[in-house]
Design a protein that fits this description.
With 725 residues, this protein is α+β, with helices and mostly antiparallel strands. The protein has four domains: 152 residues, no CATH class; 228 residues, no CATH class; 143 residues, Rossmann fold; 84 residues, no CATH class. Helix content is 36%, strand content 19%. It has 23 helices and 22 strands. The strands form six sheets. A five-stranded antiparallel β-sheet has the order 10-9-8-7-12. Strands 13, 14, 15, 16 and 17 form a five-stranded antiparallel β-sheet that branches. The protein has a five-stranded parallel β-sheet with strand order 19-20-21-18-22, sandwiched between helices. Strand 9 and strand 10 form a beta hairpin. Helix 20 runs parallel beside helix 22 and helix 22 crosses helix 23. The N terminus and C terminus are likely disordered.
Amino acid sequence: MNRVVRSEQSIQEEGAGERRRKSSIPGLDLFSRRANRDTRGDEESGLVSNGETGSSFWNRRGGRVSTPPRSPGFFNLGRHHWQNKYQKTYVDIKSIEIRTVLREILKDVSGIGLREDKPTVEPNLLFNHLPQLENELANAKAVPEEQQNKTLISHLTLFNNYISTDYASTIKRLYPLLKHHEITFDLLWALFLPNTLIYTICAGSGEPRCLKLDWGEQKETLDRGKFFQLDCHYVDYDGKTYGEAGAVLEIDEFRGARRIDSLGVFPLAYHEDEEDVRERLIERGRKFGSLKGMHYKYYKGLAFFKRKRGVVRVNVNGRIMVDPSTFRRINPNYRMSPVKESSTYSSSGTANAEDDSENENEDEDDPDGKIKLVGATPGAAKKKLLETGKTAESIKDALVPEEMTEEQLLLCSPTVLGFSFGDKLWAEFAVEHVNAIKFNPDAFESLVLPEAQKKIVKALVESHTGNRGSRTGIDDVIKGKGKGLVAVLHGRPGVGKTLTAEGISEFLQKPLYIVGVGELGTDSRTLETQLSRILDIAHVWGAVLLLDEADVFLERRSVHDLQRNALVSIFLRLLEYFQGILFLTTNRVETFDEAFQSRIHIALRYNDLDKKARRVIWKTFLGMVAREESGSECELRDVVNDEELEGLARRQLNGRQIKNAVRTAQALALNKNEGLSMEHLKLVLAVTEGFEHDLKGTGNLDTRTHDPPGQPAVPPEPLLLRENG
């Protein structure tokens, strides 16, 4: 007990002596430490004027400095506690001159505000900007002596000397490592300065990308241990606005020194091909800016979509629709950084305090504050902001792709959001692999249809898409009802029903959205949701919608099958208000419900192909093979002569069978490294006709084992029976 009492007395005497010692130092009241007697609330402790009990000084590592800095004291160090444990050191800036310099140097650093009465800054941030501070001091000394700001020079000299002295050991370790392009985990904070351009690889697409660092700091969790977290931003597009979206990158703890460019994330300046990477990413940024709105494109490469844990990658080789707006609307729970529609920033880069209260609803969508917009949207939004009292200088215009700087182009997202028609998949597509579509203008003309039918179909689709000019057709009595174009294509398989829809989409240069029964399902509880979504998307994109083999939804209703009745009723109702182009194909038109008759604009019957039609189809596909073999510079050869073509046309095959026969014969010729000839076609047709006879039950099926010619037949082995016991 006596030891404790003496210890408390010694502490009180030490504190009194320290206060007497501090009172003798002139100007010390400007930089004394704020003390909080209640240790439970010491986490928020800071600095106050001289005279408080417990005033002391601490370096950046939390160690106590026995003697205060010998200066007029225009800055000092504060330490945060939680249950008397050291947490972090902050530098309280009291010198107005130093504040002014730091405002200019740190104006673009997010989260740093130097306009408070007693602003605080982390020492590591000051060390990272020591070259700029030394440059400011040199500029102040370069002014003629009679015009020099002596106070600024004095304070900056003291400030820079403190940083250099306190970080002497760090400088001794850091500079040799950086000279050899190496770094240790505990020094990552000195490598990743705010506003540094960061290079990394997109986790989903594998494409290189750049981001701009907002803040980086070391963190630790129980499950992961230590890691370095980098809060960054990049330029993204949400279908309406180009703005800044946030991203969080992490570097797991590692042992020893590592090469900087071997890290998964590192400053772009340390890339061995920095200039080439810059040029490539800037060019890709221009392409990203050109994909504003909706675009029907061709894609060949790796696409991906995010799951709860990780990403799922798929290879896509086909046509896609780039449409971020519809993507976000259809997939509202997809993990992505939102781009806010309106926000204002002051010239120093920090958000106005009054804006926070006005945009409370927007902040709920982004609780971590990782997303911000580059300025306000133009037009009405900007006018509204001006009316609320914002100055024109504090409002930046929204990003315009054509006016982006090279740095903004560099920061553009490496992926765009869209839909793959072949895979029926919403995904993210690499901008690098998005290309223009080479449409086939002859696809519709190659249809083997009566000329009258082709003219009717062409006139209807042109009228519906508005290609007739200013003239428009009549509407229903109820506006918005029955404005779609519904065509039924019926006939036997392989006579050109699906090809008609494909030819129309090529003629219009619009997407072809093929829907199957598997995608819609046969449950009436989900059919309405799925079909409504598909009809909505097709109308937004102006797509030609093809419902292949639609018999299950069009069959006649009966009093006994309530499930089918529900499917047909839903389909009838939704069809009434569809405003796009819909093709329905079926082989059983005689089973249609009579209510569909009034909802069908045109019904095309496809008869079996005659000899003339088959000759045209054979010639078309054989001509395609000839063009592929000869190339664009050589003259086309005749794969078969007229007599052989006439023989092929006499065979009872439909269009799909002819195409399959030509493709199989071509594969056989390629395997033998030969040009396609009649011999290859005969071999394939013999196999095809044999299968057709077997399918119809008119062929000779022999299941017995056939022995090689010239060898006697081997009798079957006798069946051995094993007796028990």
